[in-house]
Each structure stands twice: as structure tokens, then as C-alpha cells.
Automatic annotation (TrEMBL):
Nucleotide-binding keyword on record: yes
Keywords from the UniProt entry: ATP-binding, Cell membrane, Kinase, Membrane, Nucleotide-binding, Phosphoprotein, Transferase, Transmembrane, Transmembrane helix
PANTHER family recorded: SENSOR HISTIDINE KINASE DCUS (PTHR43547:SF10), TWO-COMPONENT HISTIDINE KINASE (PTHR43547)
Single GO term (MF): ATP binding
PROSITE patterns for this protein: HIS_KIN
Compartments, as annotated in UniProt: Cell membrane
Protein's name according to its UniProt entry: ATP-binding protein
Histidine kinase domain location: 313-537
Bilayer topology: Multi-pass membrane protein
Domain of life assignment: Bacteria
SUPFAM superfamilies per the UniProt record, alphabetical: ATPase domain of HSP90 chaperone/DNA topoisomerase II/histidine kinase, Sensory domain-like
Length: 547
């Protein structure tokens, strides 16, 4: 049974119990009220008759019954009194509702009346159980000349109680219907809020959600309908650098409690970065928006939590991880392309050497093989001996072979010794690989006008701890129409046809900014891109070692 159904059953049971209790209390209160009313009526009527001169004079007349019987019947007919009994101090009835009992002795207690006391009791007489009031009748000299008793029968009280029952039943029924309706509405709301799940299922779902939130590699933030964070996992707090609001904990707690009381809405104690808040406020839903928070470049998406929910989920991915994966893939792809190009080139040269040997042209075969070995060894020696970073040197060698296969002459010029980079290898591979790939593509696409060539230059920078990378090509250069927005995501000079166009340069630009440098370009017989790469500073490292 779902939580909503259990809640509804419990509420209905509780409503029924409360309704029964209320009905019993109301019946008891009604009975008490009718009884009190009967006591009040009998006391008032008895007091009035005890002080009536007509009654006093009748009690002293020669035939009291003849004078007072009609009087008593008139009182019974014109009031709520069921019977009026006038009697002598000795207890002999002078009047009665049933004439046959006139002259008989009064069966109730009259001792307190003889002691000058007016009192109300519940007794059983000739007509049955009744609530009656007995009072003495005084003569002008203060002596008791008789007693008067008036009463209301209990069956009459019961009848009045029964007359009240329909009204009580209507009130209880209305209470039951309204309470049941409220319980049903609450159960419907609870069913929607819990998707009709049982408590055990909710517990399991909660445990699963906590595990997913704790272990998820993406940052996840739950936003309310106003775009405020109400729940975030640790990864999101780390990536977005979410911090408490400016007020201290006591003020936040006080403000939260006031808000909850007045508006019944959660007040977030943490705030989103400005750039994320602008994205969330500007669009209800979006996918793969790139933004920078601190030193991190993030990919942010915002989707609905569920189909009919007003809540949204903010999904945050660190581009560093994507860059690492992309860089690893690019490195593997470059190495594979280089190996494929080298294999193809080596096969062609081996066929040529074999053919020269078959033609017995041994000097030419030796010269051809030695020249190829010299070129390959010179290039490998220049890169590997001058560039200490193994990832960068391997990338340049692979790109050289790939460019050669595409008919592009790629030259690597190294000035001095290039220390290993302090940046993440995947970031270095991503920046250099994107720039070289774009240069090879531009040079190859412009080969009908210029001899396709690319030059990669590495030289010490004027800034300590950096080397300057320059990539120049013989392509057509950067189109002036896109020059101002070249590093924006989605902007590309290549033909459209892929969803990943316009990502490489944007990613390289973001990485360069995280290094504390800038990626720039000029058009000079082609495009020339320049960026500074952070490297180990030998002088600074030596000072740190000495300290």
C-alpha cells in the first residue's frame, strides 16, 4: 500500500474516532443542558408559586383542593412543568396531575422543605422519575402553611434530548465529510509528491539517491521554481564554489525561520555564482552551455526534474575532465595517424631501395636509404633533445608525420631548451593539437595558391616560467567577419556539418586563460596563433630546492 493510501486510511480512521467522540460529548452536553434547564424551570416555578398570595390564601381556605386544583392545572398547561403538587405540611396532597392521587400522602422527602429550604432533587414519584423542586409556603407570620412541588419528568427530558439528535447528527456528519474531504485532498497531494510509492520504496529510493549524489562525477543542483538551489551534491559545491550567504549563521537561521512561517518556502543558505545565476534566470532549460567559474571552465545543462515538476536540475561538468579524455583520444589518434603515415612512407621507401638493389644500383640504394634515415633522425633528435616534455614532443612528431601524409610540410623550430610543462598534459595536448590541426587543415585547403606548409616554433618567453608557442600556416588566414568572435563556442571557419564544430579553439582559449595567459592571432601570409605555455622555471626550482 502506498504512503498516500496509508495516510488516507489513518486519517479517515482518526476522523471517525474523533467524530464519534465529538458526538458522544455533544449528546452528554445536550443532556446536561436539558437537565439544567429543567432544574431552572422547576426552581423558578416553585419559587413563584410559594410566594403567590393566592396560593397562600388557598392553603388556609376551608376547601384548598377546590381553589388550587384548577390553578395547578393552568400552570402545567401554560409552562414546561409536567406536574404541580400542593400539600399540607404533613404531606397530604391537595393537588395532583392525576386527580385520583389527591388526598394521598406525598411519597418524596420533604424534611428539607420543612426546615425552610428550597431544593431540587431527582426522585421517582407516581408519574415516574422526575426532576423536582420543593419549597415551603409561608404565612404572613412566618409559619409554614404548606409545601409546593413542581417537576419535569425524565422521559420528557429524554424526549427533548432525542429532538436534539438530528441536529447533532447533522453537525457530526458535516464534520466527518469535511474532515474526509481534507484528508482526501492531502492524500492526493501526498500521492503526487511521492509518485504513489510505498514508504519502503521511498526509503530505498532515498538511499539510492544519496549514493548517486555522493558518487556522481557531475555536479548536481536541484533548483526550485524561482531558480534557487535547494539541494546540491558535494561535487557541485566544489565545482561551483558554493558558499553561504553573507549573513552569519544566527541571522540566516532567524531569517529562515521567519520565511518558513510566513511563506512556507525554503530559503537557500547558499548562492550560485553570478554567471550560473544569469544562465538559470535567462532560460528555463538549456544544454551544454560553456562558462567560466573561477579558474574552471564548466559545461552546464539545466533540465526539468520530471515531466510535470516545477523543479529543475542543474548538471555541471568540469571541462578539465573532458579535456583530459579528449586529449588522450587526440594523442592516440595522432600517434595512430603518425604510425600509419610512417608505415606507408617506410613501405614506399623500402620498395624503392629493393628496386634499386635489384637493378644492382648499390650506391644509389645506399644513398637513398641513408638520406631518409638522416632526415628522420634529425627531426626526432631536434624535438626529443630540445623539448623535455614527453607528451609535447610525441605530439609534435605525430603531427609531423600526419601533415606529411596530407602533403603539408610541417617544420618544428625549437630555440634553446624547452622545460617540461607544469600544466596538465591533457591540456597541453589539447591546446597544441588544436592549433596544429587547424593549421594543417588551413594550409592543405589553400594548396592551390600556396605551397602548403606549417611552422611550429617553441621559444623561451619574456615571462619567467613560460615558453611561447607560435603556429603559422600558409592558409587563407582568419576571415575578418569572424575575427572578433573566433574564440566563442560554436564559431568555426571550417564548413558546417558537425555538432562539434567551433569547440577546439574555444576550448584552447579557455585553457589558456586558466594558465594565466591568452591565445591570440594575427593574419600574416596566413594565420599566426601565439600562446604561452607554463613550464618549470629552473632558477625558481633551484631556489625552492635550496630553501
Amino acid at each position: 500500500m502506498s504512503l498516500a493510501k496509508r495516510f488516507l486510511a489513518l486519517q479517515l480512521g482518526l476522523v471517525i474516532v474523533i467524530s464519534v467522540v465529538v458526538a458522544l460529548v455533544m449528546i452528554q452536553q445536550t443532556r446536561s443542558w436539558v437537565t439544567l434547564r429543567a432544574e431552572s424551570v422547576t426552581r423558578a416555578a416553585t419559587s413563584v408559586m410559594a410566594q403567590d398570595p393566592f396560593v397562600r390564601d388557598g392553603m388556609k381556605s376551608e376547601d384548598p383542593t377546590a381553589r388550587l386544583q384548577a390553578y395547578a392545572h393552568r400552570i402545567e398547561d401554560e409552562s414546561d412543568i409536567d406536574f404541580v403538587t400542593l400539600m399540607t405540611p404533613e404531606g397530604t396532597r391537595l393537588t395532583h396531575a392525576i386527580p385520583e392521587f389527591v388526598g394521598h400522602e406525598y411519597s418524596g422527602d420533604r424534611s428539607r422543605a420543612l426546615a425552610d429550604e428550597t431544593y431540587t432533587v431527582t426522585e421517582t414519584g407516581q408519574l415516574g422519575p422526575s426532576v423536582r423542586t420543593i419549597a415551603p409556603i409561608f404565612d404572613t407570620d412566618g409559619s409554614i402553611v404548606g409545601l409546593v412541588s413542581s417537576g419535569v419528568l425524565l422521559n420528557q427530558i429524554a424526549q427533548e434530548n432525542r429532538q436534539q439528535l438530528p441536529g447533532l447528527a447533522l453537525i457530526v456528519l458535516a464534520l466527518l465529510v469535511m474532515s474526509s474531504l481534507v484528508s482526501y485532498v492531502l492524500a492526493r497531494y501526498l500521492s503526487r509528491a511521492t509518485n504513489g510509492q510505498a514508504p519502503e520504496s521511498l526509503v530505498r529510493s532515498q538511499a539510492l539517491n544519496r549514493a548517486v549524489l555522493a558518487e556522481a562525477r557531475e555536479g548536481l543542483v536541484l533548483l526550485d521554481q524561482l531558480g534557487r538551489p535547494v539541494l546540491a551534491n558535494l561535487r557541485a559545491r566544489h565545482l561551483l564554489d558554493m558558499k553561504p550567504a553573507a549573513d552569519d549563521a544566527a541571522q540566516a537561521q532567524r531569517r529562515r525561520s521567519v520565511t518558513l512561517r510566513r511563506r512556507n518556502e525554503p530559503l537557500p543558505t547558499e548562492i550560485l555564482p553570478t554567471v550560473i545565476r544569469e544562465l538559470v534566470d535567462g532560460q528555463r532549460e538549456f544544454l551544454d552551455e560553456w562558462c567560466t567559474v573561477g579558474t574552471r571552465t564548466l559545461i552546464v545543462s539545466c533540465v526539468k526534474a520530471s515531466r510535470d515538476s516545477k523543479l529543475r536540475v542543474l548538471i555541471v561538468q568540469d571541462h578539465t575532465e573532458l579535456t583530459r579524455l579528449s586529449g588522450e583520444l587526440d594523442t592516440v589518434r595522432t600517434m595512430a595517424a603518425g604510425l600509419r603515415a610512417q608505415t606507408h612512407e617506410h613501405a614506399n621507401r623500402m620498395h624503392t631501395v629493393v628496386s634499386l638493389l635489384e637493378l644492382e644500383r648499390y650506391p644509389q640504394a645506399l644513398e637513398f636509404a641513408a638520406s631518409n634515415l638522416t632526415v628522420t633522425r634529425d627531426l626526432g633528435t631536434t624535438v626529443t633533445e630540445s623539448v623535455a616534455d614527453p607528451y609535447l614532443s610525441a605530439l609534435l612528431l605525430g603531427k609531423t608525420a600526419e601533415a606529411h601524409e596530407r602533403g603539408v610540410d610541417l617544420q618544428v623550430v625549437v630555440h634553446g631548451e624547452i622545460p617540461a610543462s607544469t600544466a596538465d598534459p591533457s591540456e597541453v595536448v589539447s591546446v597544441v593539437g588544436n592549433l596544429v590541426d587547424n593549421a594543417i587543415y588551413a594550409a592543405a585547403s589553400n594548396q592551390d595558391r600556396e605551397e602548403p606548409a606549417v611552422e611550429v616554433e617553441l621559444a623561451p618567453s619574456e615571462r619567467p616560467g613560460y615558453v611561447q608557442l607560435t603556429v603559422a600556416d600558409t592558409g587563407p588566414g582568419v576571415d575578418p567577419e569572424v575575427a572578433d568572435s573566433l574564440f566563442d563556442r560554436g564559431v568555426s571557419t571550417k564548413p558546417t556539418g558537425g555538432s562539434m564544430r567551433g569547440v577546439g579553439l574555444h576550448l584552447a582559449y579557455q585553457i589558456a586563460e586558466s594558465w594565466g595567459t591568452r591565445l591570440s592571432f594575427v593574419n600574416d601570409a596566413g594565420a599566426v596563433f601565439t600562446v604561452e605555455i607554463p613550464v618549470h622555471d629552473s632558477a625558481r626550482d633551484a631556489e625552492e630546492d635550496d630553501s
